[in-house]
Amino acid sequence: MKSSEIYGATCVISPASGKYPLLITLLLPVVAHATQQQTTQADQNVMEVNAQDYKETGNGPVYGYVAHQSSAGTKTDTPLIKTPQAISVVTRDQMSIQNVQSVAQALRYTSGIASEQRGANTDSLEYLYGRGFLIDELWNGLYTPGPSGGFGYNVTSFDPYMFERIEVLHGPASVLYGQGSPGGVVNMVSKLPQKNQLNEAGVQTGSYGRAQGFVDVGGALNNDQTVLYRIAADGFNTSSQTDFVKERRFSIAPSLAWQINDDTHFTLYGNYQTDPDAGYYNSVPINGNIKVPRSLNPGDPSFDSFRKTQGAIGEELTHRFNDVWSVKQSYRFLRNSQKLQYVGNDGFNADGKTLNRTAYLNYGDVDAHTLDNQALATFTTGAVSHKATFGVDYQHIRFSHWFYSAAAPSLSISNPQYGQTIPGPNFMYATSTEATLEQLGAYGQDQIDVGNWSFLLGMREDWTNNSTHSFKTQETQYQSARAFTWRTGAVYQFANGIAPYISYSQSFQPQLGTDYEGKAFTPSKGEQYEAGVKFQPKHSNSFITLSLFQINKTDVQTSDPEHSGFSVLTGEVRSRGVEAEAHASLTDHLQLIGSYTYTDITNTNSNTAQGKAPVGIPRNTGSLWADYTQYSGALAGWQFGAGVRYIGGSYGDTNNTFKTSSATLVDTALRYDLGQLSSSLEGWMASLNASNLFDRHYIASCTGQSYCYWGAGRMVLAGIKYQW
């Protein structure tokens, strides 16, 4: 059986359109060198990989769709069936066959996640919701600045082509990662050097004039294969479903791995991504029977622009002292900057046909240092085995944000006139701040195995210091907090592969600001009760998870009923529901992914929205994906894939006065191994993908009747790539 993409990503060369001549210049020598090294024997042109030829790890490649190991839930290489908390893994194979273009798209078939609430705008601004809460992103297990941290538009967004796998830890994760949302975390795992690298290069085109090129190459730099390298890159240029809105990107992720000796390993990795045109960032109003065209641009093309640049460098160092003790250090520096200038929709005028608008200028940057030092002790005491982890982590984030606004001329939706005079340098000064966040955490965890039982106990202490300086008032607010969190859980594995589990976990999240009396807000707190069943059949490459959960978030800011313009920490939110997810390789030909989510989230204590559901969270979602590969006969070399996604309606305002409509979307995939036509084409593959095949028009979510987001329309991509 030929490897799908177990060892690698995809190498792709920049499109022939010439939009990225530098990418071609830089990468062609690398591809040429790698090509010269390939063997001339036909049976070696494409690597043959058997499922038994590799050992899966918690942060490495996965053969097919079914992962059995993960480090996201414990910071150690642990079987999913032994982790008493729901974890989802999106593999590189799944991302490749579905041809995902954003992390949000990669999570379309994952339970518990609402990933495209901003509709078509997911490439540059990812708002991911887990179990009803805005959640955080990790990159190689280290925190990245995201929307839930209050960084505004200065949030990281990564090209999914750079990742080997994307994992979701459902529910609170503060014991492992410090401050964060009670809804969970998404961990993105980089493509790193492999000894058996499957190189790849390709181009594709598609809807809206898309031109894209990608490349993923790597291998050994010395004869004994102790020093390995890898370079993945992606670039594209495209228009979009919104008139006059373009997207351009170039992203590159180099990495180097050095096996210093049998016990010591060092990895250096980086990422640089620039989005000169970062895409759509606007909303449209809903007003009864007035239909706003999906293609309408409510801004002004002569004024609007959105640019983002981010770069990072990180390292991982591991050392094993003996059979008991080992240590690991992870460090990363990340910088992100953006400038967003646009004319924003503010809802309909009294005539119901003209949009009120405001002009905005928003720019800023983020510098983030993140460090995690941990020690692992693996030992037994009688019949009891332990995997004990102790660690100290630290992060320092500096964030600056400049924001201006001014009234802008209105726009007719039936006859939009662009190029109007938009206020410029005389923008009204709105708000500008610089903030610093520091967090120091110490944690400990023990994973205990006794017979068929697996137990987990972890605890953590965090100290946070935040400062916020206002350039408008020239005042600085300081805030310090301390939080203790803990988690516990148990799993029992039956001989038939069924493993019921139960767990409890906590989270905390600092909140900036003060109440009427000037007292700094304490962190919000979250706790989750979860019970479920995991099933890993003994004679089938499958993994199924069914979970029931309840999350209670307390000390939430809500309006002060006695002092207008201030908040008090008496708010509470409860989320409870059911999640089911299955990944299965039923045969060598057929693979399946299925998921269902029921989420009931309510403001259980609020001075403004008592008993109401937060906006944008569908109560029911479900999906099913299947693909079939034929290896012999008349259809040899063909791979067919199809999926259906159901997205339930969600409330569109805080008072729950209206809901968006539900939507059912169909995706398809088709690939053909051109080597079936001729041995001279060995390694070449053609592909055709369509998402939202029937071009369903739907609203992804709203935050009020004036602020709604169109879902992504039909996207067709056709490409060709070469693997060696």
TrEMBL record:
<keyword id="KW-0472">Membrane</keyword>
<dbReference type="InterPro" id="IPR010105">
    <property type="entry name" value="TonB_sidphr_rcpt"/>
</dbReference>
<keyword id="KW-0998">Cell outer membrane</keyword>
<dbReference type="InterPro" id="IPR000531">
    <property type="entry name" value="Beta-barrel_TonB"/>
</dbReference>
<dbReference type="GO" id="GO:0015344">
    <property type="term" value="F:siderophore uptake transmembrane transporter activity"/>
</dbReference>
<keyword id="KW-0732">Signal</keyword>
<keyword id="KW-0675">Receptor</keyword>
<dbReference type="Pfam" id="PF00593">
    <property type="entry name" value="TonB_dep_Rec_b-barrel"/>
</dbReference>
<feature type="domain" description="TonB-dependent receptor-like beta-barrel">
    <location>
        <begin position="258"/>
        <end position="693"/>
    </location>
</feature>
<dbReference type="InterPro" id="IPR036942">
    <property type="entry name" value="Beta-barrel_TonB_sf"/>
</dbReference>
<keyword id="KW-0813">Transport</keyword>
<comment type="similarity">
    <text>Belongs to the TonB-dependent receptor family.</text>
</comment>
<keyword id="KW-0406">Ion transport</keyword>
<keyword id="KW-1134">Transmembrane beta strand</keyword>
<dbReference type="InterPro" id="IPR012910">
    <property type="entry name" value="Plug_dom"/>
</dbReference>
<dbReference type="GO" id="GO:0015891">
    <property type="term" value="P:siderophore transport"/>
</dbReference>
<dbReference type="GO" id="GO:0009279">
    <property type="term" value="C:cell outer membrane"/>
</dbReference>
<keyword id="KW-0408">Iron</keyword>
<keyword id="KW-0812">Transmembrane</keyword>
<keyword id="KW-0798">TonB box</keyword>
<dbReference type="InterPro" id="IPR039426">
    <property type="entry name" value="TonB-dep_rcpt-like"/>
</dbReference>
<feature type="domain" description="TonB-dependent receptor plug">
    <location>
        <begin position="80"/>
        <end position="185"/>
    </location>
</feature>
<protein>
    <recommendedName>
        <fullName>TonB-dependent siderophore receptor</fullName>
    </recommendedName>
</protein>
<keyword id="KW-0410">Iron transport</keyword>
<dbReference type="GO" id="GO:0038023">
    <property type="term" value="F:signaling receptor activity"/>
</dbReference>
<dbReference type="InterPro" id="IPR037066">
    <property type="entry name" value="Plug_dom_sf"/>
</dbReference>
<dbReference type="Pfam" id="PF07715">
    <property type="entry name" value="Plug"/>
</dbReference>
